[in-house]
Design goal:
Largest sheet: 9 strands, mixed
CATH superfamily of the largest domain: NAD(P)-binding Rossmann-like Domain
Shape: elongated
Strand order of the largest sheet: 9-8-7-10-11-12-17-22-21
Number of domains: 3
Structural class: alpha/beta
Strand content: 5-15%
CATH class of the largest domain: Alpha Beta
Number of helices: 22
CATH architecture of the largest domain: 3-Layer(aba) Sandwich
CATH topology of the largest domain: Rossmann fold
Number of strands: 22
Radius of gyration: 33 Å
Oligomer: single chain
Distance between the termini: 71 Å
Amino acid sequence: MKNVINSLSRLQKKLLAITFDVVLSIIATSFAVLMYFEISIFFNPYIIVVFSFFIINFIISFTIFSLYKQVFRYFSFNNIVNILYAFFIYLVLNLIFLKIIEFNLLKWQIILFQSLSFFMMVIISRLAFISYISRENSNHLASSIFLYGVTENSVNLFNLLNNTKLNRIVFFIDDDSKYHKSSISTVPIKHTKHLDTLIKKYSPNEVIISDKYDLNTKRNIIRSLEKYNLRIRLIPNLENITEAYLRSSYSEPLSLEDLVNRKKMRGTNIKYLFKNKKILVTGAGGTIGSELVRQIYASDCNKLIMLDNSEYNLYSINKEISNLNDAHNKDTIISSLLVNIKDKKKLERIFKIHKPDYVFHAAAYKHVSILEENIFEAVENNFYGTKNLVDIATERNIERFCFVSTDKAVNPKTIMGCSKRLAELYIQSVYNDLSEKKLTCPKFSIVRFGNVFNSSGSVIPLFNQQISMGGPVTVTSKDVERYFMSITEAVNLILQSTELSNDCSIFVLDMGSPIKIIDLARRLIRLSGLSEKNNENPEGDIEIKITGISSYEKITEELSVNNNLSNTEHGSIFKDKLELIDKVDLDLLYQNLLKSMEIEDEITIKRLLNRFN
């Protein structure tokens, strides 16, 4: 029966519910009429008017309160309150129409009895349906779950899971003393000090961590649970949740930021840096660009010019910032420009019209493996595009120009790294040329850093997907390690670095210690409640497969060309030594690249890219 109901469309389910309520109305009306008249009244041809009267009125009342838009399986006290409101309107409509039509087969006693009995039948039928669904679902093998942290969201998740009977919440876990010896709907709230005993005794399938905790506390909780080989997940966003979602992914997987134990830097107030300035951000819809936009917007700049060649990304960040502008009643001028930085004429027009004071250049192609196969696009976008922006910014003598680079530009082995390296060198050559000629120029700055948490192309979503499919989890080498930091922290440091530059400084952000990728894979397997399959554990769940490192991939990324970093007044920002290349050499390289690009000579292009490495 349940399968038949689930196979119906939303409209068919709605029509079925209305039909069922019509039957209940007819039954309730029959009882009410028999309370006042003899059974012979049913042979009166006008009795059909009485039945129609009640049916029409309850459909009107139920429609007003959207009772047929509710999902019955998640029936709650609020639904009963809505039905009560609907029946109040239903009773009022019945009495009003009784006064208007004065039909002799309708009496106020009949209306009162019919309304009350119909109300009880509707409530009982809804509760009976819930009971039936729950009994059907109880046949499934339910997973036992601990909910870690009592919040409104964790209680809501408990109610949803409890309604479906697909998963069984065994305990709430919380260290707050106010919950001592308390329970939520018969589920006890236990203190964290009892967690070890509870896990050993009840062997839960999963622990879901609520949204109660900050990032560092959450990391500590994850670390404390790691030894139990449990599936550790995070509480999901409960808006618009569906049963299908509850069945497949009622919790959220861990992210890279949850796993890497990196001390979070306290953000510094940067409002004074950009107040009343006109700021241009390229790549404004990307991972770094969009966070630049958010933090710059918060600094009360006069005008924010967002430039990107992706329509969707530009639309998304424009909508977000425009909504903020409206919500806070700010008068920041917002411009969203769908432009490719390879188009120099359009860039010149943008600088002429908008007259930016600062440029933050974050636009770049960055996916290493893709760019290895698309060398022309990598050079055009990452090098030519940067050259276009630098040339125009210099001609218009803007105040500051910040180039967002990468650790892959240091002794590069990839097309992506080489293209970014050339962009760095070109900026330095322009600065060097203008300085020697004693001409004014923008205050250039170049900022290098490694991977950021939860960026597009992050390794953790890939690992989660591979684990959910039963493995193997693929790692290029057991020795590969990478630096990581949060997007918010990286961008805050980028913005602060602009104030530190009085020439053409290369800044390197404090990335902490590098993390072995294979260690992340192993932790994620354990935190999924599974074990690694290897020679020591052939019966394990998930195998880690070493695929082999490519010729262009490094074991460990470097942050400085000459390992010659010096401190700045900011503890998390270091300065690298400038490499002043003659602009004539870079211009010649540019011309040679153009010629090779025209004839699609990849061999020469690669040779030219490596010339200054």
